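Hey, I was hoping to borrow your eyes for a little while. I've been staring at a protein lately and its backbone has me curious. You're getting the sequence in one-letter code plus the fold written as tokens. Would you mind checking whether the tokens look sensible for this chain? Here's the protein in full, and shout if anything looks odd to you:
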Amino acid sequence: MKEVTRFKVQGARFKARLRGFTLLELLVVLGIIAMLAGIVGPQVMKHMGESKTKAAKVQIEDLAAALDMYKLDLGSYPTSEQGLMALIESPDNARRWNGPYLRKSKMPLDPWQQEYRYVAPGEHGKFDLYTLGADGKEGGEGEDQDIASWE
């Protein structure tokens, strides 16, 4: 009879353990998650900003290569007035235009959803192709920095 009573007492303790988590245990876990998010979150955002900057550099290089192909066909770069759209649609009086010079029929935007800026002739070369970064203003550091074809 003692064994049956002992099993009943142990069974009651086991069932008590299965009821769930206490409020204190949940608060400790939430605190740990919040600390991890506070440490990891800024690092993830930093890398995301760096990847947008790298993507803008690659897009500028691709657009510059397309502009070079345009120059090979027509003998000059598009004017500032014609802009980058000359890579997709034939400008007026462009007899040797052999485009489109971009894969897509739509002009790509920079990673911050702004249009790339194009000036020809440029101050830094035959053309200036650049984006103003995340803030849309000249200058800046990090994700706000300007990214240009002449750098």
User: Anything to note?
Assistant: The helical segments are 2-17, 23-74. The chain has one domain: 2-148.
